């Protein structure tokens, strides 16, 4: 089941050895030649005196795609629209991610891959189309602006380039993977997910946790090192459980969090605490949030969720036989909770009374697994690219 989730699709060659020997900026500036040199230095091409493409994959080339600090990615507008739609940034008053329902669309999207020199220029890095970046570009900050994502099955090596903000280009728009991740191909979904996860991690971890000095980026974007005490840190994910709880009548539990927009309901979730096993977290969270006791707990699937840096561990659970089956929301985090039959949930979604989790979320797949098929269309859905 995990491989079907939008943020768990695609298998990339992560090229861990290349992270230590290949500079992503050199890849963008030197293309295939940099790949061959990196293979020679890393000893991945066999005979060190005869450089070959990494891992011996013929026809390797370098491709760049863009991500901006808040996690938006540049995608090609379906149909090649001449005028890009307005960029709506997360947290803005209009179109805020926290206030906007999920996106549904039958169109597929693709990451925009500009020429390497244009990507460098947009990131303000030397070597771009104008030969140099802006005056404030400095070597210390360059490393975190280009990150080696890995190689896809066609032999292409991909570099994510962080730009200061969305740039307007005909036929290109900026989208949040929370809303459009399910519309990307398997490879693009995996690439975008990793890039957003790294960008957000770097934004949060700028200073050493041991001595407080500003850290510098190493390993092609996949680690940081403190120049003072030498501490090395790697990107982290915080484990969280998410569970579809079912009662003895085969009804599913849904709830509304007090921090969510009106009408949006989902299954329960919570972070795994220190020294706690995930199945124990399922039981604790359900008891704390709605006062119900869970019996049988079974793993369902797992999904990375870089908003901000979670690893969602999905479970199905049944109430403990003979226990109270009436949810009692805690009134702080959860303000409404109830069990739904399949017919009740279908009617609530179709009428717009309940907005279910979006199609990128594991919560959606937990519900559809219980529902036995695709949930009904919601009148609260939006266009993935915010064109209406």
Give a quick rundown of the structure.
It holds the Pfam family NUDIX. 24% of the residues lie in helices and 22% in strands.
Structure description:
The chain has 388 residues and is α+β, with helices and mostly antiparallel strands. It has three domains: 2-204, no CATH class; 205-236; 238-371, Nucleoside Triphosphate Pyrophosphohydrolase. Helix content is 24%, strand content 22%. It has a four-stranded mixed sheet with strand order 11-9-13-12, with helices on both faces. Strands 1-4-3 form a three-stranded mixed sheet, with helices on both faces. A hairpin with a 4-residue loop joins β3 and β4. Its EC number is 3.6.1.22. Residues 76-104 are annotated as: Disordered. It is an enzyme of class 3 (hydrolase).
């Amino acid at each position: 089941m995990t491989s079907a989730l939008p943020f768990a699709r695609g298998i990339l060659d992560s090229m861990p050895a290349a992270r230590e020997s290949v500079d992503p900026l050199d890849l963008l500036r030197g293309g295939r030649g940099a790949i061959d040199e990196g293979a020679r230095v890393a000893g991945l091409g066999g005979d060190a005196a005869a450089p070959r493409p990494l891992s011996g994959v013929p026809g390797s080339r370098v491709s760049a795609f863009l991500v901006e600090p808040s996690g938006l990615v540049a995608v090609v507008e379906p149909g090649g629209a001449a005028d890009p739609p307005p960029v709506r940034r997360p947290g803005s008053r209009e179109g805020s991610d926290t206030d906007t329902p999920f996106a549904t669309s039958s169109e597929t999207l693709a990451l925009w891959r500009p020429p390497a020199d244009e990507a460098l220029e947009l990131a303000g890095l030397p070597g771009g189309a104008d030969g140099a970046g802006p005056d404030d570009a400095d070597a210390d900050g360059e490393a975190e602006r280009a990150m080696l994502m890995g190689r896809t099955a066609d032999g292409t090596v991909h570099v994510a380039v962080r730009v200061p903000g969305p740039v307007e280009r005909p036929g290109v728009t900026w989208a949040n993977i929370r809303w459009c991740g399910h519309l990307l191909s398997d490879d693009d979904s995996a690439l975008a997910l990793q890039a957003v996860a790294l960008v957000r991690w770097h934004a949060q971890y700028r200073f050493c946790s041991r001595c407080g000095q500003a850290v510098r980026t190493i390993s092609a974007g996949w680690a940081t090192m403190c120049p003072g005490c030498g501490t090395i840190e790697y990107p982290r994910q915080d484990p969280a459980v998410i569970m579809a709880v079912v009662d003895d009548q085969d009804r599913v539990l849904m709830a509304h969090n007090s921090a969510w927009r009106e009408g949006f309901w989902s299954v329960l979730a919570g972070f795994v605490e220190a020294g706690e096993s995930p199945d124990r977290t399922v039981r604790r969270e359900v008891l704390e949030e709605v006062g119900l006791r869970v019996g049988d707990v079974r793993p369902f699937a797992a999904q990375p969720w870089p908003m901000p840096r979670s690893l969602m561990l999905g479970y199905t659970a049944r109430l403990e036989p003979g226990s109270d089956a009436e949810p009692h929301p805690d009134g702080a985090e959860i303000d409404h909770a109830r069990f739904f039959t399949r017919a009740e949930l279908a009617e609530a979604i179709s009428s717009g009374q309940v907005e279910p989790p979006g199609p990128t979320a594991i919560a959606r797949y937990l519900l559809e697994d219980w529902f036995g098929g695709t949930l009904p269309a919601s009148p609260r859905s939006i266009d993935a690219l915010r064109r209406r």
